[in-house]
Amino acid sequence: MTEISTTILDTLATQAIELPSWAFGNAGTRFKVFSSPGTPRTVREKLADAAQVNRLTGLAPTVALHIPWDLVDDYAELASYAGDLGVGLGTINSNTFQDDEYKLGSLTHTDPRIRQKAIDHHFACIDVMDATGSQDLKIWLPDGTNYPGQGDIRGRQDRLADSLSKIYARLSGEQRLVLEYKIFEPHFYTMDVPDWGTSYAHVTALGERAFVCLDTGHHAPSTNIEFIVAQLLRLGRLGSFDFNSRFYADDDLIVGAADPFQLFRILFEVVRGGGLDDGSPVRFMLDQCHNIEDKIPGQIRSVLNVQEMTARALLVDREALTAAQDAGDVLGANAILMDAFYTDVRPALAQWRESRGLPTDPLAAYADSGYGKQIADERVGGTQAGWGA
Amino acid sequence: MTEISTTILDTLATQAIELPSWAFGNAGTRFKVFSSPGTPRTVREKLADAAQVNRLTGLAPTVALHIPWDLVDDYAELASYAGDLGVGLGTINSNTFQDDEYKLGSLTHTDPRIRQKAIDHHFACIDVMDATGSQDLKIWLPDGTNYPGQGDIRGRQDRLADSLSKIYARLSGEQRLVLEYKIFEPHFYTMDVPDWGTSYAHVTALGERAFVCLDTGHHAPSTNIEFIVAQLLRLGRLGSFDFNSRFYADDDLIVGAADPFQLFRILFEVVRGGGLDDGSPVRFMLDQCHNIEDKIPGQIRSVLNVQEMTARALLVDREALTAAQDAGDVLGANAILMDAFYTDVRPALAQWRESRGLPTDPLAAYADSGYGKQIADERVGGTQAGWGA
Amino acid sequence: MTEISTTILDTLATQAIELPSWAFGNAGTRFKVFSSPGTPRTVREKLADAAQVNRLTGLAPTVALHIPWDLVDDYAELASYAGDLGVGLGTINSNTFQDDEYKLGSLTHTDPRIRQKAIDHHFACIDVMDATGSQDLKIWLPDGTNYPGQGDIRGRQDRLADSLSKIYARLSGEQRLVLEYKIFEPHFYTMDVPDWGTSYAHVTALGERAFVCLDTGHHAPSTNIEFIVAQLLRLGRLGSFDFNSRFYADDDLIVGAADPFQLFRILFEVVRGGGLDDGSPVRFMLDQCHNIEDKIPGQIRSVLNVQEMTARALLVDREALTAAQDAGDVLGANAILMDAFYTDVRPALAQWRESRGLPTDPLAAYADSGYGKQIADERVGGTQAGWGA
Amino acid sequence: MTEISTTILDTLATQAIELPSWAFGNAGTRFKVFSSPGTPRTVREKLADAAQVNRLTGLAPTVALHIPWDLVDDYAELASYAGDLGVGLGTINSNTFQDDEYKLGSLTHTDPRIRQKAIDHHFACIDVMDATGSQDLKIWLPDGTNYPGQGDIRGRQDRLADSLSKIYARLSGEQRLVLEYKIFEPHFYTMDVPDWGTSYAHVTALGERAFVCLDTGHHAPSTNIEFIVAQLLRLGRLGSFDFNSRFYADDDLIVGAADPFQLFRILFEVVRGGGLDDGSPVRFMLDQCHNIEDKIPGQIRSVLNVQEMTARALLVDREALTAAQDAGDVLGANAILMDAFYTDVRPALAQWRESRGLPTDPLAAYADSGYGKQIADERVGGTQAGWGA
């Protein structure tokens, strides 16, 4: 086994992967949402579950909230509650896909009243940010159309630009606007922010505190995602990741589950582009659906996958790689990259966890903890959280 | 305008496109199911809506049922009710994707008890068929896995074959088993019947009354669907179509909306392969989701699209086409096909409708009928039908 | 048949579709390049063939050149020769994919000497532009890598930006730099300009006379191309089209052959975004491969397809469309678009051609002209033009 | 590091990966074929290069020939020459894509004379098999069409079935017919054998010695290849693999280079389905293009990749896996699979090589051998082998 240097371990110690509160609620497909015992009914229960992931891995110090799913009266109190659990409140995510009036659009709607309603929703999200101290307002815009002719593609862009500028103007201090893109779903003909180019064009028009969010599941088949990572880092506009994995569409599987080598290449470009450096604007976050598997272990598995792959990315001998690249040694350069990928970093990371008072095997520790049984027993009655609540 | 011959019009007169009862209920994505006024609460209301489509187009004489969504106590009475509305009961569709016990499989489950439960569900569907006189049991198997290793791909096939053989053995008389395939969703790593080859291998193992169902939205990107149509017709195993259209995944848009030329090519292969001939085993059916558009006009638009495209397919000068093909005249052969596609058949079909006592413009006639307002006013209270009911 | 208004016909009269000189040479796949009798051996013969297309359609007044394939000593003389044939010299295309030294990159190469060689090639292309009066330097950059690690994605971007800035600085007057993007091929892991976002980021960094070229075959499966058209028009950076069509990858089939409805939607966005207006920066061009079909008729078919689809796009009742869109009438808005698409514009265009002294049926006129036989008889010996010459 | 058991090492010792003679010739894209010093000019030189791969890895005891590229007068002599180099002659591959008469089809052509010519070519290939003792006739059929209407899809299938039956009838003894499928290229609308279902339908119609060849690069995007592997093994019709890897289309990159985890899953299904057992009908072969990288090291890298991944597949604790699958433990079952994948098998395989008298690092050994320089010096003049020769 290749030794993992202290420098690498120190870098890994600074890595933080934000968990989405909704990962602990039920998720599913249009065909069925399966429920499971112990699923949280409240934001506090979601935070409690997220705190388990952080307690066992040391990797997930903050939790993203989704408004209105995670609306509470007193965010100071919620932040304090979270703090007691050892986690903080992170990114605030807006929701413009579940109000009946948004059926044909929100920030892009032809009706100025509905557009303003959607803008106001983002203002309310910024109010939450002010209360929680969250830095990022993340906008995943579900707007789009299903049929050619249904909407005016160009007019929708113009209205989107106008709506975004009003939201951006409301931000203050260090607050940032992060605009996610997605090729399709929930709409099937056009999405109003379908690709990184569109998100990039909008955020550069907004200003310096606007960034692109890259969800690894939101691309056309065969898109080279690490290229986009490298390009956005180069342009200074990569704000955050939504990590997950996919075989077909936006499958929202556990990050690294479908194509671990792709995750490695992505993280290598993050390292290469300074995304792990001090002061980097890049934030890491999960955005997944545990449709059939247990949710808390699913999140543990996910943050470990990101950490292990980051370790492999950091293992790449970049000096040797550059030399091989400059020499035009195609196979040699590739071999240097692959050598890091094929290195089994798990034993070294287990030792590192032990040295930091964390369980060497977080999944086994979770299974042994009895937490799963405990919440299944305690959380009886009420309405389990899901995408609708 | 190219004249449409009497022969073509006579062929069109025999075309029947089955409507799915669930098309009239609410549908949506995992993000949101939008409801709309007038949505049926009962099977009878679904049948009433379907009957409107048939009344205005003359194209949709039967309605497919979905069990258990359309479970009633007395199917003879339901059939009689439908008959009074001018429609019949058609294909019976089973459902193995909404019971909690099917989370990890139904006909393929490792647990023999759950497999038997799923088999018993199909026996119950056959009982319905016996009561309604339906010919086809259509099985769309949602079984699959989300993660590599989760299931034993091979073992699942063996169990599937066993389960299907038990169901097939229960059929009697002219009853048929039609096995649909789908590349992904609701599962994201494997589906147990992902492609036509798998469906074909299973139905040939079952016997002569087992056929493949081709859903036009269930393929990998860039799959040549008309090739599969031609091949299955050649092999004598094309049992039915589920028509819809797509830009990305299984979008379930109105048939012909996304790629009208593809629909034309598909229907041309149907014609070429004898799929419209007397005694053809091929059945036509819609399977779509009207997430945001009005449902009854959506179904009217759909059957008209199929009819118009069938007319264009029938217009192809096949003698000239064969001559050009045999002469190796690439551009000439293509031009003969395109000439039919670019012909505007709508005026001729309007005349034909008029000659048969149907409205020349079915969509305008529906708008004028007041039916939409009537059901919106009448259908107040109760639970609107959807995929869950 | 819907009447085509004089306004529409006048707009069509201004449409010009540039032909690529290389369309008249042999093309093929990596497996085989089939030759055919009459294929040009020289630039002059290519121009003569292109002039036939223009003579019969009135749509193709200019011919794009590819350097070094179309290198001649005296471009003034060549322009004069072309002028005598009734055509002009158009866009100059550079070539950085056939020199052995470009195996691992040209404008992005790690070796400054090879980068300068590639830059110098573009200077030579600008010299040709100065001699011919061509406005556009079109750069399709084939640079990329085949294996992860082979190249430094980020470093290649930086070198590309530097190389492009040197080329751009050499342009003068009204000359423009148009940067094409392509997702893959000839490289299979990364391309250095894989998507419109990358091209857009580079051209905005260069200056106001730098634009994006959109080749309709250069996208990932299921990419919504008309969205990109609308977006680039909105951003003022759509410089030109390379038209062709595809079922799978960069198939380079006849434009409109694979998905005529997509071509319609693209041209509708061109119309919507002012791309046909006076002073529009958008240029139309073909870029196809006639691997198995006759080349001159293939080009005639292509320009007719673009014209017919432009006519359909212009037929859209935009006032009614906007009203339906604003009213949220999904099916109504779609129907307005489809009505134009399904209108058979061919008879009106035939009349229009007649009124302008052009043959009503250009393909029949070509067949009758005997030109094909003539060049087959005359062009004996020499080396047929292809991608290598 | 997980120990690799003696049982596993013994299984690995039986693995043989056939090399294609054409891998040592030049390959490229339609844009450019780059040449390199030392490229073979003759079949003997190809065999010499292939023998280097086997000498250093012990994995590649046979070489596939391509007719007519590898036509010689005396195959007994060629076999003897190969034997002296330590390798044998393997699969015979036919070629129906480079004769001008096959432009519109070979085994499917409308002209019976051209069909017979293509059939006769396969008879000639069988004659070679008789001379060399090769077991497999592999048919990759490039036939297809570029434009809708160009050919009669159904008629082409019927003619194909007829042609194949004539070829099959000519086989004798243990000889097998292996039919490869491919979704697209060199044709872009239809391929006559586009998918495994089509190949399967044809080979079952032929007889027991007809099998399917699965080329890992010949599928639509997002196709689950290991499912097809499992299915074909279950149906008893998986004859052979053509290994390579891809990001986009049929990129023909080094096997395992683009998606190592996919290769692992494929090989796991091979193991699971008995494909490595004694008497298995499954043959392993490479089919790649080394467009820019060195060819001999490229082949060494490839066979090592297959071996390493086979070792990982053999490491899967199948008993534990089955238990987890039966228990419905989604994450647990997945973890068992991933544990094998993430195990670094390279040190154990290096030891194993050492124990068998092979170099521990075959690539370093090749670099040290001087063979590359030697052939570059010796092979001067003549015509380098490529796809055309």
Automatic annotation (TrEMBL), chains A, B, C, D:
Matching InterPro entries: L-rhamnose_isomerase (IPR050337), Rhamnose_iso-rel (IPR013457), Rhamnose_isomerase (IPR009308), Xyl_isomerase-like_sf (IPR036237)
Q: What domain of life does the UniProt record list for this protein's source?
A: Bacteria
Keywords in UniProt for this one? Cytoplasm, Isomerase, Manganese, Metal-binding, Rhamnose metabolism
For this entry, list what GO says about its biological process. Answer: L-lyxose metabolic process; rhamnose catabolic process
GO MF entries:
L-rhamnose isomerase activity; manganese ion binding
**Pfam families in the record, alphabetically?**
RhaA
Q: Which residues cross the membrane?
A: none
Extract the NCBIfam families matched here.
Answer: RhaI_grampos
- PANTHER family, sorted: L-RHAMNOSE ISOMERASE
What is the designated name of this protein? L-rhamnose isomerase
Q: What organism does this protein naturally occur in? A: Cellulomonas chitinilytica
Gene name as annotated: rhaI
